[in-house]
Amino acid sequence: MPEQRKRILIVEDDETLSKALGEALAQAGFEVDIAGDGELGLALAKKSSPDLMILDLTLPKLDGTEVLRRARTESALATTPTIILTNRDDIESLSQTLESGPVDFLIKHEQRLEQVVALVKKRLGASA
């Protein structure tokens, strides 16, 4: 029986970025779901129990910090590895978000797609 592919949930309102990142992750062998706002992202997370979430902090409807806080109250999502991928680099948003337990905090303009894909692979301990 073939091994089931790992599922990644991208919650990002920048369509260009989410599409490019989704394609890069799919090419790396991951199943990818994409949500363009925080409410949809939280609903998809609850429905699909992703193996890892990539989450922006500045989102419509429900910000990323709140998405993560609520996800951590769900037993199936309480320990889901999360990569925060945002343009916000202020200490206050960083400390508030880290209290919710993300694995990594990346600044968008400092990352290439390949770096994010490599980090996803590392966090999941898998080749995909």
Annotate the secondary structure layout.
Elements: E1 7-11, H1 15-27, E2 31-35, H2 38-48, E3 52-55, H3 64-71, E4 82-86, H4 91-98, E5 104-107, H5 113-124
Parallel strand pairs: 1-2, 1-3, 3-4, 4-5
Helix pairs in contact: 1-5, 2-3
With strands numbered from the N-terminus, the spatial order across the biggest sheet is 2-1-3-4-5
CATH architecture: 3-Layer(aba) Sandwich
**What is the molecular shape?**
globular
Kindly give the count of domains.
1
Secondary-structure element pattern, one letter each: EHEHEHEHEH
Explain what the structure shows:
The chain has 5 helices and 5 strands; from the N terminus they run E-H-E-H-E-H-E-H-E-H. With 128 residues, it is α/β, with parallel strands linked by helices. It has one domain (7-121): Rossmann fold, CATH 3.40.50.2300. Strands 2-1-3-4-5 form a 5-stranded parallel beta sheet, with helices on both faces.
Quick recap of the structure?
By secondary structure, the protein is an alpha/beta fold.
